[in-house]
Design a protein that fits this description.
The protein has helices at 4-11, 46-52, 89-108, 125-129, 145-153, 163-167, 172-184, and strands at residues 18-24, 32-37, 57-59, 64-69, 72-77, 80-86. By secondary structure, the protein is an alpha+beta fold. Bound molecules: iron/sulfur cluster.
C-alpha cells in the first residue's frame, strides 16, 4: 500500500530544482549567484505565480518571472532559475525548495487562481539612462546613452557594450544597480 508521502511525490510537477552553477554575486561579493535547472517547462504557470506572489513581475515577451525573497533576487525562465544575493549554497537550496513548493501549488490550484499577465514593474529607457555614465562617448556604437538605453531594453545590446561602465571604477555603483534592474526584468546581465 502506498504511503501518503509517496502519492504526493507522484503528483508533484517539480520534485526538485538542481543547482548547476555557482559564482560570487556581482552585487555583493559576500553572497552567491547561481543558475539552477527546472526539470519541466514552467512558462504556462508564470501568470499564476505572478498572481500568487506579491513581489513577482511577469515579463510576458521572454517569458520570465522575477521575484524577491528577502534580499534574494529570483528569476524564473521556462526551464531555468537564477538566484542572486543568496547567502550560500544551503540558503540557495532552501530558496529553491520554497520555489518548488510555489510552482507545485500554482500547478495544483490553477483552477482557483486568476492568472495575471501584466508585469507589475515598468522600466522606461529614461530610468536606464539615469544609471548609464551619460557621457555620450559613443564607444557602444550608438550616438547617445539614451539610444543605448532604449536598445538595451530591446535586447539589441548587451550591457557589456557600454565599456566605460566596466572599465572605470567611478561607475561601479551604477553598474551594480543596472545589473540588479536588468536581472529584475529577466534580462541577461
Ligand atoms: S558607451 Fe556607454 S557611456 Fe558611452 S555612449 Fe554608449 S552607453 Fe553612453
Amino acid at each position: 500500500m502506498r504511503q501518503a508521502g509517496e502519492e504526493r511525490l507522484e503528483r508533484m510537477l517539480v520534485e526538485k530544482i538542481d543547482i548547476e552553477h555557482v559564482e560570487p554575486c556581482f552585487a555583493d561579493e559576500t553572497k552567491i549567484r547561481l543558475i539552477a535547472r527546472v526539470p519541466v517547462d514552467v512558462s504556462e504557470l508564470m501568470p499564476y505565480l505572478n498572481a500568487m506572489l506579491a513581489s513577482a513581475t511577469y515579463v510576458r515577451d521572454r517569458p520570465a518571472l522575477t521575484l524577491t525573497k528577502g534580499i534574494r533576487l529570483i528569476t524564473v525562465y521556462p526551464r531555468r532559475v537564477t538566484i542572486a544575493k543568496a547567502d550560500d549554497v544551503a540558503d540557495a537550496e532552501e530558496t529553491l525548495a520554497w520555489l518548488c513548493e510555489k510552482i507545485n501549488h500554482a500547478h495544483d490550484h490553477k483552477g482557483e487562481i486568476q492568472p495575471v499577465f501584466e508585469g507589475k514593474i515598468r522600466i522606461k529607457p529614461l530610468d536606464i539612462y539615469g544609471l548609464l555614465p551619460q557621457t555620450n562617448c559613443r564607444e557602444c556604437g550608438e550616438k547617445s546613452c539614451l539610444a543605448f538605453a532604449l536598445l538595451l531594453l530591446q535586447e539589441k545590446h548587451p550591457l557589456r557594450d557600454c565599456m566605460p561602465l566596466y572599465r572605470e571604477k567611478k561607475w561601479a555603483d551604477k553598474l551594480r544597480r543596472l545589473k540588479d534592474v536588468l536581472e529584475a526584468l529577466g534580462l541577461e546581465t
